[in-house]
Amino acid sequence: MTNSLLIAGSLIERGIIDFQNGQTENAIGLFTAALQHDSGSICAYANRATVYYTQGCYQQALNDLSRALELAPNLFALYINRGLTYNKLGETERSTADFGQAIRLDPQCFSQLLNQTIVLSPKEPEIAAAPASANSQPLTYSLTGVARKELHQGIFKVFSTMSEFCAAVNIPWDDFTLRKTQTDVLKFALLLYNQAIAKEPDNPFLYWDRSCLLSDTQQFEQAILDLNRALRLAPNNAVFWSNRGVVHYKLLDLSSALSDFTKALELNPNDAAIFANRAIVLIGLKRLREAVIDLERAIQITPDNGILVRLYETLSLSMLEQQKRHDCSI
């Protein structure tokens, strides 16, 4: 039995590598083989579900996630992934219920993993995370970034044109090629911004735009440096403060993110997105009552935002249940 478990773990690790390299069919085969050696492997079910999800096979993903939850009913990562899957299937009530359960199990981790599907490692089943597919539109609220300027938008037109050309001449455009090409385009965009800043070193919007690209390429520390420069040149720009809060959040520096969003709201107290972003940070800090207040303010500004309304209802329900448990323990 021990040997079978070791084989299963090895197959799962190989499957994760294949999945991350865009070899999705190989990954499914390896996770399926792992289940033949260990029919109770939560990692194999959960990771195979993630691959199915990226392929658009949502019902298969749902089946695997439901089986994994039978084996591990208190693993919050599974509720996040199943919530994303239910949302893709148009079952918003079940999606919201799963996200609510994830918040109740671990509010801080939930806020850190918004808009992501989670790949479970056989060694650390609750830690490793991988991005969701590019077309994913989950129900959960994610921190709002800023719009790109015309140059940034033009660079992405190059990428879009390449994608359309490959489709027209029937050239394979798999996930690995897509990610590599997108990275190359972003590097080219950064080169152009470097040249633009050399010509206009006192233009705060160029630093702001470049920070977006740096963040997109996971260069968060450099993005912070650019936003610091932009803020020195335009200290009363609420968008710059808000965007630095987003990057601090990505660095898991919740204290700095909270400070930035608070400053942004001092400058622009009528921006629902900033209130919502600060609420997400407060959830991560486990300051749930303050988060609820910020969500209320965001909803007052944009009452038709269904995502914020459902997140507010879920968080309020979670607090109510916590209070009930507290009252029962007294």
Automatic annotation (TrEMBL):
Pfam families: TPR_1, TPR_8. The keyword Nuclease does not apply. Gene3D superfamilies: Tetratricopeptide repeat domain. InterPro entries: TPR-like_helical_dom_sf (IPR011990), TPR_rpt (IPR019734), Ycf3 (IPR050498). The keyword S-adenosyl-L-methionine does not apply. Keywords: Repeat, TPR repeat. TPR repeats lie at residues 42-75, 76-109, 204-237, 238-271, 272-305. It comes from the Bacteria. This is Tetratricopeptide repeat protein. It comes from Pegethrix bostrychoides GSE-TBD4-15B.
